[in-house]
Amino acid sequence: MRWKQEPEMDTGGASGRFSATMLWLVLACLFMGFGFLVWLVVLQILPVGQAYPSLSINFVLIALSAKFIFKEEADRRLWLGVAAITCGVLLIGIRS
Question: Are 88 and 56 in contact (CB under 8 A)?
Fold first, then answer.
C-alpha cells in the first residue's frame, strides 16, 4: 500500500512576512526607547506641568501627516482642533 504524499508547502512568503514584522517590531521598540530617553531629558529641563501638554503636538503631527502624506480628507472640525491644540501649547509655553 502506498501512502499519498502531501504536497510541499511554499513558506517563503510567510517567512518574508515574519522577517518584515520582526523588523518593524524591533524598530518600534528602538524608537520607543529613544522617545523615552528624550522624554527623560525634557523632564530634566522643563517642569512636568509645562512639558506634558507639549505631548499634544503628536495629535497635530498625526493630523498633518494624514492630510499631506496619506492624502486623507480633513474637515473643518479637524483643523479647528489642531488650531486649539496649537494655541493651548503656545499659551503654556508663553506663560513661563
Answer: yes
- Side-chain half-sphere exposure of 30, counting CA atoms within 13 A: 6
4 belongs to a structural domain: no
Take residue 86 and report the three cell numbers written for it: 496649537
Q: Has residue 3 been placed in a domain?
A: no
pLDDT number for residue 95? 64
Asked if residue 2 is part of any domain, the answer here is no
**Element housing 86 (H / E):** helix 76-95
Total domains in the chain come to 2
Burial 39-62 (b: 16+ CB within 10 A, else e): eeeeeeeeeeeeeeeeeeeeeeee
Give the span between the Cα atoms of 32 and 52, in whole angstroms: 17
Over the stretch 46-86, which tens digit does the pLDDT of each residue have?
A: 888 888 888 888 889 999 999 999 999 989 999 999 999 99
pTM (2 d.p.): 0.57
